[in-house]
Write a structure and sequence with these properties.
By secondary structure, the protein is α+β, with helices and mostly antiparallel strands. The protein contains 14 helices and 17 strands. The protein binds adenosine monophosphate (AMP).
């Protein structure tokens, strides 16, 4: 891509498809750079809408509303990858879309995503496409058990997947999972889940953040530790993978690559999120330029900036009522930065906000975990599950 794309001037409008917290935090960062954000989402009063300069409440399939939206903005981005491909196709003919339709279509289909990762030089677990029941038997014969059967589209936070441990599990999983086709992946006996975030500007310049280590609870991200406590060579490779992915996707904006770390030090790619990611929220307080500012910069045609970290960090998601109950204490905590998303109903499993605990640079590796989590108001004990049940 050429370096001749002029940056948007202050006051220009960035259109954001999706009204969630990722769009909200992108809009806040874009506002700091002098831009106005216009949020387009089907739901009114969403976290993104609350901080937007302009709003469109309409379905993603409403072509007339999309045309009006395109006419009102200078560039379009999205904050979740399940935007219908037709929506971006409609907008793409009218206004620059960053990232573009190719990156979106690869990342919203696990089959294309896995093939793409392998082509980009990121190793992945053995996998097979499963279009009918006979193909499931053939895929299990080829890959073996245990294995993970997933929908190829529209899955998130562990939804739309089943672990197959025994041949007797196949029928129920096949009946339950939709939409099809499905993908069967070998079960990865990982020791850690890590993610790497890269930002790429319109001029092709790419920067990467430090790799983080992620813990999940009930399949939802619970805590990220920055930097990941992994050997230097592993961290470097993860960053290289993330850079390679955004370069090969020719993505303009931010993307996260989720990786499994194996006991022997190998990394296997799991998923790409072509947008700011929950595992990058720590950058809001531990870096000079957050993932949201990088995304806004890239989308607006400004240069991406330094992704260096000035502190170690632990990010805890505040989920449901339990997460919100920690807030009062966090407001008084030293070195804890609270971010709430403006959601009124604290339903179980709902991400209400997050808290970033900052630590002196280099101190996380040798720190005991429990006191850190206690400083983030961790109230409930219980299993933090690294793998699907
Ligand atoms: P995903 O929706 O692909 O991000 O998967 C959700 C979670 O399921 C991941 O964060 C892992 O903990 C687990 N998982 C996904 N795929 C596999 C796999 N092939 N082997 C083992 N665990 C997996």
């Amino acid at each position: 891509m050429s370096g001749t794309v002029a940056p948007l001037p202050p006051g220009a409008a960035i259109g954001i498809l999706g009204g969630g917290q990722l769009g909200r935090m992108t809009a806040l960062a874009a506002a700091s750079l002098g831009y106005r954000c216009h949020v387009y989402a089907p739901e009114d009063d969403s976290p993104g809408m609350q901080v937007a300069a302009a709003r469109t409440v309409a379905p993603y399939e409403d072509v007339a509303a999309l045309r009006r939206f395109a006419a009102a903005v200078d560039v379009v981005t999205f904050e979740f990858e399940n935007v219908p491909a037709d929506t971006l196709a409609t907008l793409g003919g009218l206004v620059p879309c960053r990232p573009g339709p190719r990156a979106l279509s690869i990342c919203q289909d696990r089959l294309r995503e896995k093939a793409f990762l392998a082509e980009a030089g990121v190793p992945v677990a053995p996998w097979r496409a499963v279009r009918d029941r006979a193909e499931l038997d053939a895929a299990v014969a080829a890959i073996g058990l245990p294995a993970v059967l997933k929908t190829s589209r529209l899955g998130y936070d562990g939804r739309g997947q089943a672990v197959l441990r025994d041949p007797a599990d196949l029928d129920a999983a096949w009946e339950r999972l939709s939409p099809r086709p499905l993908i069967l992946e070998a079960f990865v006996p990982f020791v850690l889940e890590v993610s790497a975030i890269a930002a790429r500007g319109v001029d092709g310049t790419t920067v990467t953040y430090d790799v983080v280590e992620n813990r999940h609870r009930h399949h939802i991200l619970d805590t990220s530790f920055a930097p990941a406590r992994v050997p230097e060579a592993v961290a470097r490779r993860a960053r290289e993978h993330a850079a390679r992915v955004v370069e090969e996707l020719e993505l303009v904006g931010v993307a996260a690559v989720e990786l499994f770390l194996l006991p022997d030090g190998r990394l296997l790619g799991n998923e790409i999120a072509p947008r700011p990611h929950n595992s990058g929220h720590w950058t809001m307080n531990a870096c000079g330029i957050s993932q949201f500012e990088q995304h806004a910069r890239a989308v607006a045609g400004l240069p991406v900036g330094d992704a260096a970290r000035h502190a170690d960090a632990v990010m805890r998601n505040l989920i449901g009522a339990e997460g919100m109950s920690a807030c009062a204490g966090l407001l008084h905590a030293r070195d804890v930065h609270l971010h709430l998303y403006g959601k009124s109903a604290a339903r179980p499993g709902r991400k209400m906000g997050h808290a970033n605990l900052l630590l002196p640079l280099g101190s996380l590796r040798d720190a005991a975990e429990d006191p850190l989590l206690a400083r983030l108001g961790r109230l409930q004990e219980g299993p933090v599950s690294p793998a699907p049940q």
